[in-house]
Amino acid sequence: MPDMLRLAFAIAAKDIRLELRSRTALLSAIVFSALVLVVFNFARDPTALAAIDLAPSVLWITFAFGAVIALNRAFYVERENAALDGILMAPVPRSALYVGKLLANLAFVGVVEAVALPLFVLFFNVSMGHALPGILGVTALATVGFVAVGTIFSAMVVRTRFAELMLPVLLLPFMVPPLVGAVQVTARLLAGRPLSEMEGWLRLLTAYDIVFVTLCILVFPAVVDE
Amino acid sequence: MTPDLSAARRTIRGGLVLMTLGLLAAAGVYILALYYTPMEARQGLAQKIFYVHAPAAWGALVAFSVVGLASILYLWLHDERLDLFAASSAEVGIAFSMVMLTTGPIWGKTVWGTWWTWDARLTLTLFLFFLFVAYLALRAAVPDRGERARFSAVVGIMGLVLVPFIHLSVYLFRTLHPQPVLLKPSAPSMPPEMLRTLLSGMGAFTLLYLGFVMVRYGIACAANVRGESSNAV
Question: What number is the ipTM of this complex?
């Protein structure tokens, strides 16, 4: 197990190093998320709807779109020069490869979210206050779930035609439970509701993470092995 | 591993027989529903669509479960026929979900007063449809046969696991935010004549499902033998 984690970290470190050298994908994803936030602000009727009522949905749709953009690149880098074949030939268990990719994607999506969240606070004039730790927690909880599913799908779509179109079509139905849960919890946190009102949603999010991370580790070999 | 052409032809022929029987049975269900089943007191004639709608939903659910199970078996046994069978079932499932999703709103408009509402079951079935579409869109986008089979099996299995989660989240969503009471009657227990018609409807649609899937599967097998890509699933 520690060996598997060491290999996973090595793969994640490789991906992050690669990304930090070019920075194109990361910057584009960040700019894209900022643009989504701006567009959302103009897509609402300010006289009819207060920004705060829309805030949780805007935040999570921005995170979801940003994640889809970010996930598209995850296995794209492995396609050039058949880099994936190189990794597959190395004595690396498939589970380590998956977990490594998942960690790299989480770092990547995490950075996008870390930039989008302050922008969201700024643009929508949300006062986070004491809700901030809770929002960070639910963000982590929901992000792990849909990035886990997105990682396996991005490994598949990179081998297809229209990869950039295929990923959202596959991934969005799987994003529904984490997104619905995250929006509900965020709305209650911003409204200062007690924890007992979010318990059901938090359980759902946790169950989703556990079930899908496990399932993805189990089926990942079928995606990469001939 | 691929069965030869004559076996495919036999499957198609068997499927056509089942399909014909299913269509005749469906016509019989209409006659039964319109002439020999009592009119529902509050909903009137609109309720008759139920005898098509519920069996179609049943067929879509069966199709979806078959896709999931065949996908699990495929990853285990690596038999190409399982993949073709799952894909055929998904195609038939799309047809059934479309019947379900079109008959539902027609009924809903008359009885609920709205074409669509984000009711738990409605939302769930809409996502079943989206999953079928995603599954088939992925198949169409992967050129390599083996890869296509493996990828779609993964999606089939993950879809099967996703459904309870969607159901749970939609259910939580609804119970925490009760909507204004709709004109939905709390399901009255059904008179035996209605139940009989419903069950025959489900029988007819099961026959139709089997017939459609067998024909589609036979065509896919034949296309596979000939190396065509246009009829492959």
Answer: 0.89
User: Which residue of B144, B153, B166 is in closest CB contact with A176?
Assistant: B166
A200 vs B contacts (CB less than 8 Å): 172, 176
pLDDT 10s digits, A142-199: 999 999 999 999 999 988 888 888 999 999 999 999 999 999 999 999 888 888 888 8
Can you give the residue ranges of every domain in chain A? 2-224
**Residue B146 touches partner A, C-beta closer than 8 Å:** yes
Out of B130, B141, B176, the one facing A166 most closely (by C-beta) is B141
- pTM listed for this prediction: 0.87
φ/ψ bin of B179: left (φ > 0), alpha (ψ from -120 to 50), beta (otherwise): beta
Which tens digit of pLDDT belongs to each residue from B19-69?
Answer: 999 999 999 998 888 888 777 777 777 788 888 888 998 999 999 999 999
CA distance B189 to B54: 16
Which of B165, B167, B173, B229 is best to mutate for the A interface (most A CBs within 10 A)?
B165
CA angle B223, B224, B230 (to 5 degrees): 45
Of A218, A216, A5, A222, give the one whose Cα is nearest residue A92. A5
